[in-house]
Amino acid sequence: MTSVVVARCLPAAVIVGGIAFDVLTPPKYSSAPFFVSAPLVAAPLLSLFATLLTAVVALAAMVTLSFARQAPETGESVTEVATVLIVGALAVGINRVVRRGNLRLASVRSVAEAAQRAVLPTPPARIGGLRVAARYVAAQADARIGGDLYAVQDTPYGVRVIVGDVRGKGLGAVEAVAILIGAFREAAEQERTLEGLAVRLERALQREGARRANVDQAEGFTTAVLAEVQPGAGALRIVNRGHPPPLLLHSDGTVGDTHPRAPALPLGMEDLGVWPDRVEEWEFPVGATLLLFTDGVTEARDAAGAFYDPQPRLHGKQFRSPDALLDSLAADVTRHAGGRTDDDMALLAIRRIDGRLRTAPITHKRPQVTARPARIQLHND
């Protein structure tokens, strides 16, 4: 906010500087560059009226100072005044062009955000003994639609969640998001295990990639995390397919990660090899919050090029609700990146509030492996 105020005061400061320069220096030194530059500085920063006012004030100051110093070179003074007049008119034109471009960009961004919300509807605030909050924070670098996704669904097998990131941007990425969300909604109700759910999503991408030319089967992929909270159990089950691991925030302020013991390929990369999906289980007590996010969070950089690391930044903090957690996280990432992020962020926070799910403490269990045989295909260029 302070930088915006300073920027808006800059044209006036330039004019004041020009007057001071003219008064404090000998007559042979011209202050015209100050008055010429003031309207140009105002054009991209101020409104049309403010730009026009800046040009008029700069011209009036130039004429007044020319008469006050009674310069012998009348031709030179006339040239300086004419220059300020012409540049002021150009500045007004530049202002119009910049404002129209900003309006077009704002319109494109609003359409992109509306399309994103249509594909990613806001999940219910309460579901299956859980409190849920979701955010989609569009990158400020451009208005292209991203491929970040999330969904939460109550199923016969528990509350199931997906957070993912489709490679690329634009309408192709949104189409892939729609395919994955649709496949997740259907398969989450039918598949008894998370492993089976992951296989169904893989097949959906392969099927649609072969059917549609704009869903890139050869190079497209999606990193994703699948999570499940089963009814009557205080455990959290996770399958991670190459995605940033979620964080577990406990009621005492401690933060733990859910880093998988064995890495896995993202969805859509089955041609490079197939490994059994591994389900890992974590304790999920009442009051704990599961935080899932896309790489727009972890790839945000500060001025020195340091990446944002959410785990130490959240350690020791307590949040009254999942919504408060996501608001704080999004604001902190933006501050870290200097107010400008280059990638979209999908954020999902799930807090367990239903004490009826309480069971005996659960330790981190050995990953469960499906019976699918491993198949590795190596392709040489």
Topology:
Layout: H1 2-24, H2 32-45, H3 48-69, H4 74-119, E1 126-127, E2 130-137, E3 148-155, E4 158-166, H5 171-190, H6 194-211, E5 222-229, E6 235-241, E7 247-249, E8 255-257, E9 278-283, E10 289-293, H7 295-298, H8 310-314, H9 322-336, E11 345-352, E12 368-369
Antiparallel strand pairs: 1-2, 2-11, 3-4, 4-5, 5-6, 6-9, 7-8, 7-10, 9-12, 10-11
Helix pairs in contact: 1-2, 1-3, 2-3, 2-4, 3-4, 5-6
Describe what this molecule looks like in 3D.
The chain is built from 9 helices and 12 strands. The strands form 2 sheets. It has a 6-stranded antiparallel β-sheet with strand order 1-2-11-10-7-8. It is 44% helix and 18% strand.
Keywords:
alpha+beta, 9 helices, six-stranded antiparallel beta sheet, 18% strand, 381 residues, elongated
Please tell me how large the radius of gyration is: 29 Å
Mean pLDDT across every amino acid position: 82
Indicate the overall shape: elongated
Q: Kindly name the structural category.
A: alpha+beta
Total beta-strand segments: 12
Low-confidence stretches: 215-219, 357-381
Q: What fraction strand?
A: 15-25%
Short description, anyone?
By secondary structure, the protein is α+β, with helices and mostly antiparallel strands. The chain has helices at residues 2-24, 32-45, 48-69, 74-119, 171-190, 194-211, 295-298, 310-314, 322-336, and strands at 126-127, 130-137, 148-155, 158-166, 222-229, 235-241, 247-249, 255-257, 278-283, 289-293, 345-352, 368-369. Helix content is 44%, strand content 18%.
